[in-house]
Amino acid sequence: MARSRWMRLALAGLLAVALALPAGGAVSVGQAAPALSATDWLNAPPLTLAKLRGKIVVVEFWATWCPPCRATIPHLVEMHETYRSKGVVLISLTDEPKAKVEPFARKMGMTYPVGCGSRSKSAYGVRGIPHAFVIDVAGKVAWHGHPGSDGFEAAIREQLRTNPPTLLSPKQKARILALLEKAEEAIGEAQYPRAVALLERIKDPDQDPEVKERVSAIRKKLADRAEARLAEAEKLLKQKAYYEADVALAEAAALAGGSDLAETARSRRAELLKDEAVRAAIEQGRREREAAEALAKLEKEATEMAPAARLKAYEVLAKAHAGTEAGAAAASRAEAMRNDEALVAGIADRAAEKDCKGWLSMARNFLKADMPAKAAPYLKKVIEKYPDTDFARQAKEMLANFEK
């Protein structure tokens, strides 16, 4: 990893001070690394070496007041960004309080975990700072020294080569492979948005070669689909099929992620939406699609619906989606049903049966309770609304019996 010239110069001067003296009492290479302690943590939840077993851990001791420590921070940030996806966890520990460290860390752009209020320095035998320890996957010290020295990064690379960390547990990998299988199935079924959603659930795919390869293959298919949709959008625009073009552009942007192709699709769509007439056409297209989907759903369910319910459903859809082809089709179906005399008669008969049975049941309950005055209104409703039916005859007989 290249270091800036200013950093080399700074370190050359600052190493002259006695702040980075060799830690004579430091934990030796090959010994188990002592536990980590900190009262507060920045950029991470509380960390322990036990939880990090299987990873390569770098523990650096530093302080905000230490010039050589400050000089190494840009290099540590760079190393954190380079190696964290490879199973290397960089931790900086200081005995200073969070209130002092947090604003300093924010100003310096320290993105790696920082432990504040630490008492681990004595356990590690550190006498001068900055001082770093490279801890292997088994929790033993593999190297220690100044984090600005060439040996620091060389030690990390050596551990990656000879004793690489476990990036994914078998359980984690199994879960990720299951997600990848579902994503691949989604692409096979042309369910591209679902494939994107599944990929978003996979963090740091570079941690495992197999995962990385399969994620790359899926992303390539999504990019190919995005490119095809972008080309299709341009054809649709020439045909003035604005709604369809807008859908194609939106899909291309979503599938291409953060690529240049996605930015092209987003820019093209933004340009399209500047035109008021085009926006109106897109809105009408959206309404037409929603109406068509609603009608298709109703047609699928209509065979299982009672005639009265089916007629009502067509009338509701026609009103809700007025001004669309599907809305007009629903209105036409409702009109055809209303013009079918036999169908209308059947609907009326069923409505009468439902009403009359309910009213007669209420009347009987009141009569059983010896409350004829409350039964009479229900019986009269049957007679008045459905005079030429058997229900009206029953109501008249019941009314006559208790009026005697």
Give your account of this protein's structure.
With 404 residues, the chain is an alpha/beta fold. It has 15 helices and 6 strands. The protein is elongated. Helix 8 packs antiparallel against helix 9 and helix 13 (341-368) packs antiparallel against helix 14. The protein folds into 4 domains: 5-162, 3-Layer(aba) Sandwich (Glutaredoxin); 170-274, Serine Threonine Protein Phosphatase 5, Tetratricopeptide repeat; 287-339; 346-403, Up-down Bundle (Methane Monooxygenase Hydroxylase, Chain G, domain 1), CATH 1.20.58. It has a 6-stranded mixed beta sheet, covered by helices on one side.
Write down the oligomeric state. Answer: single chain
CATH class of the largest domain: Alpha Beta
Write down the secondary-structure element order. HEEHEHEEEHHHHHHHHHHHH
Taking pLDDT < 50 over at least 5 consecutive residues as the criterion, the unreliable ranges are 1-24
The CATH homology group name of the largest domain: Glutaredoxin
Into which percent range does the helicity of residues fall?
Answer: 55-70%
CATH topology of the largest domain: Glutaredoxin
Structurally, how many domains make up the residues? 4
Beta percentage is 5-15%
Largest pleated sheet: 6 strands, mixed
Amino-to-carboxy terminus distance:
109 Å
Which of globular, elongated, flat, extended, rod-shaped describes the shape?
A: elongated
Q: What strand line-up does the widest sheet have? A: 1-4-3-2-5-6
Query: Tally of extended strands?
Result: 6
* Shape-level CATH architecture of the largest domain: 3-Layer(aba) Sandwich
Helix/sheet category: alpha/beta
Backbone CA Rg: 38 Å
**Given the structure, what is the number of helices?**
15
Mean pLDDT, all residues: 90
